[in-house]
Prior knowledge:
Layout: H1 2-14, H2 24-37, E1 40-49, E2 55-65, E3 69-71, H3 73-80, H4 85-103, H5 105-108, E4 113-117, H6 124-137, E5 144-149, H7 150-155, H8 157-169, E6 173-179, H9 185-191, E7 196-199, H10 201-204, H11 213-228, E8 232-235, H12 241-250, E9 254-255, H13 269-290
Parallel strand pairs: 2-4, 4-5, 5-6, 6-7, 7-8, 8-9
Antiparallel strand pairs: 1-2, 1-9, 2-3
Helix pairs in contact: 4-6
Bound molecules: ligand C2E and magnesium ion (3 copies).
Amino acid sequence: ARQAGKQIIKVYEKDDYVQHYIDEMTIEMELIKGLKAGELSVVYQPKVGCQDGMVHFEALVRWHSAALGNVSPETFIKIAETSLLIEDITGFVFDRVCRDMMEQPELFAGRRVAVNVSPVLFRQDYIKQLLQVLATYGLRPEQFEFEITEHTLMQEPLLGIQTVDYLKTKGFRVLIDDFGVSYSSLNYLKMFEIDGIKIDRSFISQLDKDNGLKEYEIVKLIVSLAKKLNLEVTAEGVETEAQYRVMEQLGCDEIQGYFFSRPLPLNDLQQALDALVYQHAALRQLELATT
Ligand code: C2E
Ligand code: MG
Ligand code: MG
Ligand code: MG
């Protein structure tokens, strides 16, 4: 079973159509078991402020299944979203993050942690539960952001608006994740009172390619529009210095991606933060020298 599982997951990352061959029920059942057995964990990816080098984090869930090996969240979140399981996962991630923040106050001082949520099942009574968890740990909503993907917001637009408004009145920051890839991206800016957007990796990855001119123009427009609307802009999936430079010059506020750091377990974060201070300072110095 282990070998078969590994094979499935390897192919799955590459070819979405293979999804049809996968028994989603198996994954769902293993996920239920895995949640109970403590197979899930949380890693943190830094987001680096272009100007000040300030680092915040995004929390990302990981699942190492005894039966299936490592399963990507791209795979199991989709499945979890079709049932109440997604609430258990959000609950697990949120609780884990709160505990980490409480146990390592120096590490997280002045830093926000972003949690990915699916508003489909993200109703007010559930948010109330999260607020209770926060209170138990002595943390404040201002220390958190919620990243909500476009497609989930639009599944139920009215619920989406209510959810975003409710989160905002409670003091949480709200970002639209993977911005630019759905059919009505601009509509979201009108409909939802959000704090910022994260431009999808598919645009960023083309910025330093010869055939990436379209992406460049689109990203330029998105950034300038977002600025006019007073939204913070984060670029996701920045992998090269050239991509960083383009985004920085366009006025992007925050950069996230392998160029600065991969998602890391809690124990590796302090070391990564120390290295990021130097990396950011060196980049800024080069900029000053060339302008
Ligand atoms: P996302 O929220 O857009 O997260 C960004 C994804 O891109 C992460 O994949 C991250 O590891 C990856 N990434 C970051 N920088 C780079 C880069 O420079 N290059 C490349 N190629 N990739 C990069 P991951 O962790 O596999 O998560 C995939 C998606 O699964 C997330 O996309 C998010 O939508 C969802 N997800 C992850 N954790 C959670 C969670 O706790 N709850 C919910 N509801 N969804 C989650
Ligand atoms: Mg995200
Ligand atoms: Mg994203
Ligand atoms: Mg993405």
